[in-house]
Design goal:
Elements (H helix, E strand, L loop, with lengths): L15 H21 L25 H68 L8 H14 L6 H11 L12 H4 L12 H7 L11 H16 L10
Helix pairs in contact: 3-7, 6-7
Length: about 240
């Protein structure tokens, strides 16, 4: 018969199975005591055991801050360069615009000067080309005849021409002498200064009408003849 071991307060002996069960209960009790020591508001987490060979990772903010500052500096420098380039481009564009405006103003001024000079030249040419207006009367005929005589180097004054006209025809450009010796020869004197046809044809001045009754042509031809024979119409005081 096996030997029995008595426990406190019990009259029965504990078997091996009972001992193992008692040990488990004791372990559970210790665990319960350990959990009860954790504050009620604390949370518990279950973590997997880290591998034994994993190296601990160290973190530092110093290098990151340095890199960030360097990047910011580079970005700031790049921004300044971009602004400088933009400013240079704007300044160059403004300078080019001013230069272009100055060139256009200069060209416009030159065009205006050229146009003004051209208009002045045109006016002078028109004035030069346009014949001077003379009155259709004795005064106008003498003055126009004298302008033609001047161009052709024929002498004669207004007074000398006027005096001889009044004696010869009384200022009538259609006057004709039908009674003197020239008329008897069939070549009567005609016009303001009573010029015979052969003399008119011989001393006619180019640019005047080939009409002996034309007052201007008659005066110029007669003065041309008088200049050849007497030096000037001013020297004629009678029939010539």
């Amino acid at each position: 018969m096996p030997k029995h071991i008595l426990t406190r307060g019990h009259g029965r002996a504990l078997t091996r199975h009972h001992k193992i069960a008692a040990a488990g209960v004791a372990a559970l009790g210790a665990a319960a005591i350990g959990f009860s020591a954790v504050p009620s508001n604390a949370s518990t987490t279950t973590t997997a055991e880290a591998p034994a060979q994993t190296a601990k990772v160290a973190y530092s903010t110093q290098q990151i801050q340095g890199v960030k500052a360097d990047v910011n500096s580079q970005l700031a420098g790049a921004s300044v360069k971009v602004e400088q380039i933009a400013a240079k481009k704007q300044a160059a564009a403004e300078a080019a615009a001013k230069k272009k405006a100055a060139a256009e103003a200069k060209a416009a001024k030159a065009r205006q000067a050229a146009e003004s000079a051209s208009r002045s030249t045109e006016r002078a040419e028109v004035k030069k080309a346009a014949p001077k207006k003379y009155g259709d009367n004795l005064d106008g005929w003498i003055r126009e005849a004298m302008s033609i005589m001047k161009k052709n180097g024929i002498p004669g004054s207004y007074e000398g021409i006027h005096r001889n006209i009044m004696r010869e025809s009384s200022g009538n450009p259609k006057a004709i002498n039908l009674w003197d010796i020239n008329a008897q020869k069939g070549i009567p004197s005609k016009g303001l200064l009573q010029v015979i046809p052969p003399t008119f044809e011989a001393y006619h001045v180019k640019g005047t009408p080939k009409n002996i009754y034309d007052p201007v042509a008659n005066i110029v031809a007669a003065c041309n003849y008088a200049a050849d024979k007497y030096g000037t119409m001013d020297n004629v005081d009678s029939a010539y």
